[in-house]
Amino acid sequence: MKSYSITDVGQKRTVNQDFVFTSETPVGNLPNLFVVADGMGGHKAGDFASSYAVEVLLSTIREDENSNPVKIIRAAIETANTQLLREASDNEAMSGMGTTMVLVTIVGHYAYVANVGDSRLYLIDENKISQITKDHSLVEEMVRMGEISRDDARNHPDKNIITRALGAGRDVDVDFFDVRLTPGDILLLCSDGLSNMVPDEDIRQVILTSETLEEAGRRLVSMANDNGGRDNIAVVLVEPETKEVEVC
Known about the structure:
By secondary structure, this protein is α+β, with helices and mostly antiparallel strands. It has one domain: Phosphatase 2c, domain 1 (4-Layer Sandwich). The chain is built from seven helices and eleven strands. Strands 2, 3, 4, 5, 6 and 9 form a six-stranded antiparallel beta sheet that branches. A five-stranded antiparallel beta sheet has the order 1-11-10-7-8. A hairpin with a 4-residue loop joins strand 7 and strand 8. Helix 6 packs antiparallel against helix 7. It is globular and about 50 Å long. It starts with a strand and ends in a 9-residue tail after the last strand.
């Protein structure tokens, strides 16, 4: 397994509200863990929300004796949501803060994915890039209902309005996905600072033409900034299994 992570403040923001965590080694009963969180809220609330949510997530996972990855993740996200609400109610400066979260743990040949909000997980192989997660956003709902096209959604004025987030309410609705992996597959977790600025096919081409995950990550951040860098950028790349190369 290989991984690389990078965040960048972008071209328009002064505070980086994106937060990443990566571990190729066990976290509690999970064999590995990769997380992207995109915080929101005024002043310092957004960067606190994303980092604190991940901090609570990790501490909860480490204390959980369950062996089922989905149950472990669900409980940890619910705890992080509760703690964010508590912090917001205790500190007026943090009122209204929240964060997206997308994460993955790889168990054997399967990736177990969870997401809340519009941070994404993609699966990239030699032939295509597939968005595994579904955005919890107003424009995504409009696309599903046929009110706007996918192309319209990219530049829609309401594209930053999300419909789910940690810290938004007492109950948090988490989507789960499991993905069968094959050697050579690459997973990309990212905030909307990347996905709103770089088309999916360009993302795939960068990853496939880079020699290393680090090179790919740095090129993606540069491309997002070159295209305007309107938001913070978070990128986590994971290669669960290296493709075997035949030696003649």
